[in-house]
Amino acid sequence: MAHKKFVMGLFPSDDKAADAISLLKKEGGTVVRVHSPIPSEKISRALKLKKSKIGWFTLAGGIFGFFSGFALAAFTATRWHLIVSGKPVVALVPFFIVGFEFTILFAVFGNVIGMLSQIKLPAWRETVPYDPRCSGDRYGVVVTCDPSQTEKFIKLFQHHGGEGMTYDTE
After folding, report:
1. Residue 155: enclosing H or E segment and its boundaries?
2. Of 83 and 22, more confident
3. What angle do CA 22, 27, 33 make, to 5 degrees?
4. 18, exposed or middle or buried, with CB in 10 Å at 0-12, 13-18, 19+?
5. Per-residue pLDDT averaged across 114-125, rounded?
6. In this structure, are strands 163-168 and 5-11 parallel, antiparallel, or unpaired?
7. Mean pLDDT over residues 13-22, rounded?
8. DSSP class of residue 16?
C-alpha cells in the first residue's frame, strides 16, 4: 500500500476555505474532510454535497404510520361491534387522531432507520487529523496526497490565506 500524507489547511473564514476547496478539486486533490466551527453554505456548495435521503425515510415512515394507525383503529372498532346511538362504527375524526399519532411514531422510526443506513456508522477508515482551532475560529480543509505533492498543497493553502500543515498516515 502506498504511503499517503494528510495536508491540512487552516483558514480564518469560510470564503477562503471554499475558494481553496474549489481550486483543490480543479487541481485533482482529494478532500477528505472539512472541519468547521459552524455550518457553512459556501463550503457545502464548494464540496458539491449531495442532498440527504433521510427525509424520504421519514416521509415513508410517516405515511406507513398514518395508514397503519387508521387501519388498527378501524380493525379494532369493527371487531367489538360497539354501536352507540346509531353512530358509524368507523368514525373518521377519532381514527384520524390515532393515525396522526402513528404518523409521528413511525416517522421517527423511519428517520432513525434512514440515519443509520445513510450515515454509514461506524466509519472504519483511517483517522483524519484534527486541529482544536477548528472548534473556535478556523476552518480546516484536510487533503490526502502522495508525499511528493505535499509542498504543492501547502503552497496552495498559503496562497489562499491559510496555514498549511502535514500529517503522516499510520
Report:
1. helix 150-159
2. 22
3. 55
4. buried
5. 78
6. antiparallel
7. 87
8. H
Residues 43-74: b if buried by 16+ CB within 10 A, e if exposed: beebbeeeeeebeebbeebbebbbebbbeebb
Judge whether 110 and 60 are in contact, CB under 8 Å.
Answer: yes
Three-state SS letters, 64-105: HHHHHHHHHHHHHHHHHCCCCCCCCCCCHHHHHHHHHHHHHH
What torsion, rounded to 10 degrees, do the Cα atoms 55, 60, 65, 68 define?
Answer: 180
Place of cell 445513510: 118
Q: Which three cell numbers stand for residue 107?
A: 416517522
Mean pLDDT computed over 114-123: 81
Residue 120 in 3-state DSSP?
coil
Helix (H) or strand (E) holding 161: none
pLDDT band at 100 (very low <50, low <70, confident <90, very high): very high
pLDDT of residue 67: 97
